[in-house]
């Protein structure tokens, strides 16, 4: 985190810094009014409602305004005489959304790599399972705990880390760095531990602290990308964790074959080391509330005026243990219960997340006995997932570029359900891909055929995930963080269960029949998706939580 006073001075810290005219005028009027014993000029007197309207108008107009010209932003004074420190102008260089394209792209790249490493740490365990089972003498279900528990805490980590990063005085940068330091430190004993209970315990803590990127990575991307273009940033972030299992399994598979089960565990250490350096020294703070809080602190030090505060400081004072518990533990589930569309998003994405983790069990059962693949080559099969997601990305970006974003610019964000259009196609592709995989993995059929089924499934799943993850923010703006938190919990619970259910399912009923069952369940998603697309507006109109 570059930004220490001795190396890189902020404008307010440089000798000879002059306050923007708007701040000088307001402070001068305040001083003159105090000397006369009169009220400040009415042009600067605002009540709290005026403040909120002012900030809302900036959010609504700032996306396009700051791209065309620089407009000074006058500070706003609340009814208790607090002077709100804000961006100095619509093109304020301190605003993450005004950073250079390269700097904003760098943030997106770092967040994507962070998330990718976290997911790779989870997936590479699968290739170590045979060696771990032989080394510690544990059963088929017991050895799976190293993967299932890791996946489970993925979902519950955001309950803790998400709210912390929303506290203005903390921000996101230190949470990223400190949690990743712990993750990196845990990678050493994980690779050297000599008892199974210790291995599982270390995996649980690794998953918990590694979940920070999953918890708030998209929020950091959203900080640097204007809301209109947020889907572009989100698609890069989601594509990163789609490629994590392919990269993790192929590298760890050959490593496990050559050097034993511990070498895949060491891969986490090697991947994490450069990532930690990037977080510590090359990643800027992206939280606007934290950036403005530090600006307010510098202005108070410069002027000696304690009335200069940011909105985040005012919000921070209102935070109580009860409100935090409410927002963190209760609100996510309340929204899921009261919002049918939200419940659909949770169930559908959780199902696909679980199906995706079934791949870890079904691929070895299909490609080793039928096609003679080895452990390293099984990792190559997972490349189908990344290829499918990449194909999905190309067509999704085309959808954004030529339909959704132009329509949003012309007509606004009123038609929320238009974001579900890719999910309509995806809901049809996913069962087709599953059926192809289910009934083409035979000795007399080339191995490319079931792989085509996997690619088809992943294209559809990618479209569904992207559509649903961009549908939520515009439909339930105020509760986006809570919805993502409860969605993560739902996905992790189902995935954790799927890890233990998949192998018995495929062994007992057969891989053809087992995958067919999953494909039939996929079919149920088709009418559900079309129903939300057609009736979503009506459902939102009935919900007190939705922003229609």
Uncertain ranges: 1-6, 40-66
Distance between the termini: 39 Å
**Counted beta strands:** 3
Strand content: under 5%
Give average pLDDT, whole number. Answer: 86
The helix/strand class is mainly alpha
CATH topology term of the largest domain: Growth Hormone, Chain: A
The helix/strand series, from N terminus to C terminus, equals HHEEHHHHHHHHHHEHHHHHHHHH
How many domains make up the coordinates?
3
Q: Which word captures the global form?
A: globular
Largest sheet: 3 strands, mixed
CATH architecture of the largest domain, please? Answer: Up-down Bundle
Strand order, main sheet: write it out. Answer: 1-2-3
Annotation field: number of helices: 21
CATH class of the largest domain: Mainly Alpha
- What oligomeric arrangement do these chains adopt? single chain
Q: How helix-rich are the residues, as a percent range?
A: over 70%
Please give the radius of gyration in angstroms.
26 Å
């Amino acid at each position: 985190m570059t930004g220490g006073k001795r190396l890189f001075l902020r404008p307010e810290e440089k000798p000879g810094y002059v306050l923007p005219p708007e701040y000088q005028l307001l402070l001068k009027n305040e001083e003159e009014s105090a000397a006369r014993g009169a009220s400040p000029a009415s042009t600067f007197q605002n009540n709290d409602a005026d403040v909120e309207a002012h900030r809302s108008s900036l959010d609504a107009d700032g996306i396009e305004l700051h791209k065309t010209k620089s407009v000074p932003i006058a500070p706003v004074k609340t009814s208790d005489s607090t002077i709100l420190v804000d961006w100095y102008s619509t093109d304020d260089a301190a605003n993450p959304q005004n950073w250079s394209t390269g700097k904003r792209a760098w943030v997106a790249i770092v967040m994507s790599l962070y998330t990718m490493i976290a997911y790779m740490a989870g997936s590479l365990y699968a290739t170590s399972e045979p060696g771990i089972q032989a080394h510690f003498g544990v059963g088929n279900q017991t050895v799976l705990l190293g993967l299932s528990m890791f996946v489970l805490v993925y979902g519950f980590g955001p309950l803790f880390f998400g709210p912390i990063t929303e506290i203005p005085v903390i921000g996101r940068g230190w949470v990223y760095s400190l949690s990743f330091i712990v993750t990196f430190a845990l990678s050493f004993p994980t690779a050297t531990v000599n008892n199974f209970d210790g291995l599982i315990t270390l995996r649980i803590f690794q998953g918990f602290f590694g979940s920070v990127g999953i918890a708030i990575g998209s929020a950091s991307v959203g900080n640097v990308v204007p809301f209109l273009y947020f889907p572009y940033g989100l698609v890069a972030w989601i594509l990163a964790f789609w490629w994590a299992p392919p990269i993790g399994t192929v590298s760890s598979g050959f490593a496990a074959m050559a050097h034993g089960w511990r070498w895949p565990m060491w891969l986490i250490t090697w991947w994490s080391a450069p990532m930690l350096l990037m977080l510590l020294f090359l990643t800027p703070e992206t939280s606007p509330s934290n950036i403005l809080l530090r600006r307010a602190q510098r202005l108070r030090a410069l002027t000696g005026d304690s009335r200069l505060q940011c909105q985040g400081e005012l919000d921070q004072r209102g935070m109580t243990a009860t409100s935090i518990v409410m927002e963190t533990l209760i609100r996510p589930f309340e929204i899921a219960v009261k919002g049918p569309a939200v419940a659909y998003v949770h169930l559908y994405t959780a199902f696909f997340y679980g199906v995706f983790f079934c791949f870890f069990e079904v691929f070895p059962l299909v490609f080793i006995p039928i096609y003679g693949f080895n452990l390293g080559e099984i990792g190559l099969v997972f490349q189908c997932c990344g290829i499918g997601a990449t194909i999905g990305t190309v067509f999704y970006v085309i959808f954004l570029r030529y339909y959704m974003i132009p329509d949003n610019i012309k007509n606004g964000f009123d038609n929320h359900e238009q974001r579900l259009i890719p999910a309509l196609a995806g809901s049809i592709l996913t069962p087709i891909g599953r059926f192809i995989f289910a009934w083409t993995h035979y000795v007399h059929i080339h191995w490319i055929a079931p792989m085509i089924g996997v690619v088809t499934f992943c294209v559809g799943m990618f479209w569904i995930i992207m559509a649903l993850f961009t549908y939520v923010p515009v439909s339930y703006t105020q509760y986006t963080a809570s919805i993502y938190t409860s969605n993560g919990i739902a996905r992790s619970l189902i995935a954790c269960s799927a890890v233990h259910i998949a192998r018995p399912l495929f062994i007992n009923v057969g891989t053809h029949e087992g995958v067919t069952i999953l494909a039939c369940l996929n079919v149920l998603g088709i009418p559900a998706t079309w129903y939300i697309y057609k009736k979503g507006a009506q459902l939102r109109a009935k919900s007190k939580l939705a922003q229609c």
